[in-house]
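Good day; I would like, with your permission, to put a structural problem before you. What I wish to show you is a protein chain and, alongside it, a tokenised description of its three-dimensional fold. I would ask you to consider whether the tokens describe a fold that such a sequence might reasonably adopt. You will find the record immediately after this paragraph:
***
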Amino acid sequence: AEPLTDGLALDLPALGDNPAAVPVRVHVTEAISDSSWCEEIILIADLNPRPFACRFRFTAATGSADVAVRLRLIQSMPIRAYARMNDGRVLAARHDITVAAGGCGL
């Protein structure tokens, strides 16, 4: 599916002063209803040794698609988030982060 750039928010600091625990929040900004909900959110840290950072799954009963995690980053990189909606749409968001020093070797 071709990702849409509207409907998904990715919140993280521009500078990760502690690369071993960078706070990241992802949330679907469009209204969630019984007929339209988010089934899955995926976070990708492009330049980490294992880029697939995490996956969250939801149902219509969840009520909202809003997650917060802390990522360990090896260097400055783009962070990408994808949300798969129940109707097949894929929402995407991207944010670049600068880290002071790699956290994967700590």
